[in-house]
Amino acid sequence: MCQMKLLISNFILLTSLFPCLAAEIKDVNDVRFRGDSTLMNMRIENSYFADGAFLIETTGARFEYVKGQLKLYQGLDKGNRRLLSTITFDNEPNFIKVEDNNDHILFWSKDLNIGIYGDSTLIISPKVNQNLKCKGNFRPDYEGRHRGEILLIDGKGGMEIYPQRHEAEYEIKKIELSKTDWTTDYRLNAGERVMIAVFPGRPFNWEESFESNVAVTSGGTKKGNHPYGFGFMPPDDIIEYWSKFLDVIAVQWDGLWENGRPHGPYKVANPSELTRLINTAHKNNMKVVLHCSLFYYSLKFSDFEDFYNQVKSVFDEYGNDGVYIDGMTFDDSRAITGRKIDNKILNWEMIRRLRQLFGKNGIIVYHATNLGTPVATAPNIETYSNITLSGEGVSFDSLDDLYVRYQIRKYGISNSIAVWIYDTKPSYLSKTKVIKALVEMNGRECWNGYEFWRKNDEDNAFYDYYLQELKNSKKAYENRQMSKKN
Question: In 3D, which of 434, 436, 438 has the Cα closest to residue 397?
């Protein structure tokens, strides 16, 4: 109690001597975001501060700041992290630590604020127009670029640089890639935030990966694809059958929501049927996730808080285990809406909040194709999901395609579990070859059970092949663990 009184009196003295500081030092809302990275085993591990300089270690990164330069190091092995990039700020800001917990540390300065999060994300918010210079220290295998957004990946991980497009039109001063000392220089307007993240932010969860097989299904639709009618869910015997080789039931929007649309409002079409589905799934040790879509919602509505509240309301009433989130906001939506709604910082905060809502043991299945944009993958967003579905409608020429290697594969990038929707595979590639490649990337196959009353169809043979490949992968993992013990 005495220490608390001393801190309060010191703060009162400081703010009375510097009244402008009293108003400004609290102004870090531009870099404060809801959610909790610790639920996904990412956190602020250590931090040190001295005379405006700092060193912060997260689960997957290290941030070192001295005299206007912030160095970003990457790696899950704390003793062997590599320097990825050096960020230079104008005016050598003298940062004051304002907030410090396991999820984030927030800093105030006269010219800009920054927040560093346990998922190895850095948010920069300038208060005055200024330059932001990033110089690289590694040569990536994959260089994705869309306007000023940059995604850089190699076999060890990588980093992303995402200026916030919806807030202002930043100026690209210089971008030079395809070399170790790559450069990305921007002229930022006051209030235009930038999200920079290092990845992977967390280790791959092997045990969870072997129990992450998904059945994507729907309720009976208005198109009449179910003998019992609109809103009826898979019968109990089908759920019991699925539980022998599947772990998660993802229910699509059609036949789930009253209006039969993906954008919401998210009001359940047949409450008793959904309750039965969830109860039967839980009895059979399966989890249920329900469709929602920030993308489709954003095409029709603007109140993103209402989106979250609708998802929460369904969870509070029905006790589903999580969400099948069918896309976030992204820039291609402008062609439909005429509005700039690409907001990766909003996407990041929203998935952090959803993770906090459903908890550590909840399930988030994130459908994240985004039409194959070269920077569609945002690993610091995807890492909050258990399972990431990618590839829908995206053509590829071979299994060595860069999109396949660095946007389908999640192992060593977001370390979520990859599911590949390979609906445009080349004719010369057999389905079994694609399945084998997916398992080699530590990804998992998806069971499409839209016509859920059928137990057998032509895909069963391929799924049996996948289950054997998965069994082989699990055995190899167990052998590796055994050899480590010995």
Answer: 434
Is residue 265 reached through a cis peptide bond, with omega within 30 degrees of 0 on the bond before it? yes
Same domain, 165 and 288: no
> How far is it, in rounded angstroms, from Cα 245 to Cα 465?
13
Query: Within this chain, do residues 126 and 223 fall inside the same structural domain, yes or no?
Result: no
Task: Say how many domains are in the chain.
Answer: 2
Residue 302 or residue 404, greater confidence: 404
In angstroms, rounded to a whole number, what is the distance separating the alpha carbons of residues 328 and 367? Answer: 9
What residues make up the domain containing 160?
A: 25-199
CB 164, CB 124: distance < 8 Å: no
* 69 in Cβ contact with 86 (< 8 Å): yes
Instruction: Say if residue 171 is in the same domain as residue 271.
Output: no
The CATH code of the domain that includes 412 is: 3.20.20.80
Q: Does some domain include residue 70? A: yes
φ, ψ of residue 367 in degrees (nearest 5): -85, 105
For residue 194, list its beta bridge partners.
Answer: 124, 163
Give the span between the Cα atoms of 428 and 424, in whole angstroms: 12
Count Cβ atoms below 10 Å from residue 349 Cβ, excluding itself. 19
- Note the pLDDT tens digit of each residue in 216-247: 998 887 775 566 688 899 989 989 989 999 99
* Radius of gyration for the chain, computed over Cα atoms and rounded to the nearest angstrom: 24
Residue type, 153: I
pLDDT of residue 16: 39
Model pLDDT for residues 81-100, shown as the tens digit of each residue: 999 999 999 999 999 999 99
Compute the distance between CA of residue 22 and CA of residue 250 in angstroms, rounded to an integer. 49
Judged against a pLDDT cut of 60, whether residue 257 lies above it is answered with yes
